[in-house]
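FORM 7B: Structural annotation worksheet

SECTION A. Query
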Amino acid sequence: MISTDLIGVEQRRQLGTTDLYLSPIGLGTVKFGRTTGLAYPNQFELPNESALNKLLDLAASLGINLLDTAPAYGTSEERLGTLLSSRKDQFIVSTKVGEYHINGKSHYDFSAKSTRASIENSLKALRRSELDLVMVHSNGADADIITQSDVLQTLQQYKEKGLIRYIGFSGKNVAGSLLAIDQVDAFMVTLNRQDSSQLELLKIAKDKHKGILIKKAFASGHAANNDALNYVVNYPGVTSAIVGTINPDHLRSNVSALTL
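SECTION B. Predicted structure
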């Protein structure tokens, strides 16, 4: 185990059996575009473009190559599209379908029509010809989403067209999420010192050689310490943990505290 002040290429991890190699922590971007309806303990204001440019420059210099966004993150996708226009191939971007944040509230739609519109909107907003990874953004009814909607089939159609490279599922419960095990390339699961409710999914996904992204590593900001991050980053099978921050000092300290 070694400590590092930056993440080297040799420390990137393969996302399951895909050709995506990710830094062990990724930068979550909900705070790039949304301030309402979040579980974070402290209020914040959206950073301006200059601040976000500096944050992305810092992330790249530290060796982070994964950004996580979603239509539900307000203007995050659109802002990333602008910010990344001069950073060709510098970051792998994960986005989502299913959840939309409208007038301060979350709304969900997993229909084929909505999924198609979401993908087209993400391609346009992010200014990309293909999306690296698209996760289903579950509302908690995981089993119904997988068995009663066309969302995974629609994502597969876009994958076959070459507009999506890989598909994932970000669920809320183990039994429901497992129904997607043979239809996705990766899962996003909750894991932190306070919440191990999805460990069974993580372990089965690892055995099935699926990529694993971690959400809520810091329990939505309620357990922000180095031990919390190293616990999830070094958990067997974890590809990358998503850290949502707009604070350069926090990002730098997270990377410098990694023991890999």
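SECTION C. Observations
The chain has one domain: 24-256. The mean pLDDT is 94.

SECTION D. Sign-off
Analyst initials: ____
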